[in-house]
Amino acid sequence: MELIPAIDLINGKCVRLFKGDFNKRKDFTKEPHEQAKFWESEGAKYIHIVDLDAAKTGSPRNDESIKKIAKTVNIPIQIGGGIRSHERIKQLFSYGIEKVIMGTSAIENKELVRDLSNEFPGRIIVGIDAKDGKVSTRGWLEQSNILATDLVKEFSSFKIASFIVTDINTDGTLEGTNEEFIKSILEITDIPVIASGGIGSISDLLSLVKFENSGLVGVIVGKALYENKFTISEANNVLSSERLNDFDLNRNYYA
């Protein structure tokens, strides 16, 4: 299970939202490319970027920051936020992005996702953001009546790289993950799953290790890293398979 650090962008700056609320935003001073390079130096194997402006409006506003990150780091990047067309995906790939995340477009244009996953097998991720088990779209501003589990079942026949599943009620809270939600997704798909939302301590990471054999391949962490709850190198050290036996999974490390 890989720890994947997150860079959420608004107006070219690193930010974090509380439960997806644009009005409950915290800005961080480090430039996005500097933050990405620091995390790479800490041992990150991947960078996760969300263009929150594009997610909200559908119009990309952070491409200069995205291109600068891609030129600065030597590790793969996955990006989401407002990706709703073939042209946009090809543009992002031209910047050096490894994988793209389709969220709103996955719900509103499933045929597009099918076509793109056939054209770019293993490079399309479906992002499913849910509140109380139901999918939210357009930067989490619109709530649907579609169950996240139903969407996962439908997309599991596509040639996608993975699912990223986010429980909005835990995102940005640092209060722990929604394990039942993650488990419900893993039980219905053979596609690799990356979890997001709620990680606030090393013990929160360790609580998800039990899902590795069920298909959980990664966990996205943002606020906890920005606020120095733990470092990537500490997390990698703890999560490495040869070290797990040295730790008590019930102990609250770095809480």
TrEMBL record:
It is found in: Cytoplasm. It catalyses: 1-(5-phospho-beta-D-ribosyl)-5-[(5-phospho-beta-D-ribosylamino)methylideneamino]imidazole-4-carboxamide = 5-[(5-phospho-1-deoxy-D-ribulos-1-ylimino)methylamino]-1-(5-phospho-beta-D-ribosyl)imidazole-4-carboxamide. Its main location: cytoplasm. GO terms for molecular function: 1-(5-phosphoribosyl)-5-[(5-phosphoribosylamino)methylideneamino]imidazole-4-carboxamide isomerase activity. The active site is at 8 (proton acceptor), 129 (proton donor). Its EC number is 5.3.1.16. The keyword Chaperone does not apply. It comes from the Bacteria. The keyword Cytoplasm applies. InterPro entries: Aldolase_TIM (IPR013785), His_biosynth (IPR006062), HisA/PriA (IPR023016), HisA_bact_arch (IPR006063), Isoase_HisA-like (IPR044524), RibuloseP-bd_barrel (IPR011060). Keywords: Amino-acid biosynthesis, Cytoplasm, Histidine biosynthesis, Isomerase. One of its GO terms (cellular component) is cytoplasm. GO terms for biological process: L-histidine biosynthetic process; L-tryptophan biosynthetic process. Pathway: Amino-acid biosynthesis; L-histidine biosynthesis; L-histidine from 5-phospho-alpha-D-ribose 1-diphosphate: step 4/9. SUPFAM superfamilies: Ribulose-phoshate binding barrel. Belongs to the HisA/HisF family. This is 1-(5-phosphoribosyl)-5-[(5-phosphoribosylamino)methylideneamino] imidazole-4-carboxamide isomerase. It comes from Prochlorococcus marinus str. GP2. The lineage of its organism: Bacteria, Bacillati, Cyanobacteriota, Cyanophyceae, Synechococcales. The gene is hisA.
